[in-house]
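Per reviewer request, we include the raw input and output of the structure prediction for the construct analysed in the revised manuscript.
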Amino acid sequence: MSFDDDRGERAGPRRTPPASSQQALEELLQAAPGLARIAANMARQGASEIANAYVEGASRVVRAASQGESTADAVQETTAELRAYLRELIGVEEGSRSKPTSGDASAEALRNRGEELLRRSADVSVDVDSHPAYMRILDALAPDEARILRFLAREGEQPSVDVRAGLPFASELVAQGCTMIAEEAGCRHADRVYAYLNNLNRLGLVWFSREALRDARRYQVLEAQSEVTDALEKGGRTARTVRRSIVLTPFGEDFCAICLPLE
């Protein structure tokens, strides 16, 4: 039995390989484990050419082993080529370290990444069904914050009130963003609700709207809570509530639809 070489010609009789194909692959993985992880991550994000380059390199090592050639040379050559390819792609020069670069170099690296994004956007073979930030957002959420998001996705916008004291055009804020959303969502740590909401707002998932809900009756229970009544008492005779609302942003709606079980 014989094999075709890279030129498509008939090769001679098969020689006994010095290492198996599996051993050759293990040598490549041991030589460049970081490259394997990068290839896998980039493939998940749609950059299939990087994964293809890694697979092609592994195939070269396997082919060398099956034809009885030295796998050490093939591994060394393939690893060097993959590293050079990845450096070129992300704009890292040979021998450089991970450190802040000058303004011009940094701008050039950013432009290169922007060009790569535009190239991928025009590639019809790339089909990414979710935003690349969603994975990082999930890592940045507390369990109670996921409950709040699911509650907003199911029930829609929720009431909140500010308490102000003084004249209408010269008032002082006594309490801000009073809400029952933690209790309504079933949060385990309702006392942390303002930290939760601020984080969700920071991530672009919720918005503190200055608009009141159309149904004024939805504020009645909220305005009877001790947090609000205590603030009204503190503000004195001129204290009053200003009705607001808490809503999911369009980005938050898409995040909940993709990442959270809403049933």
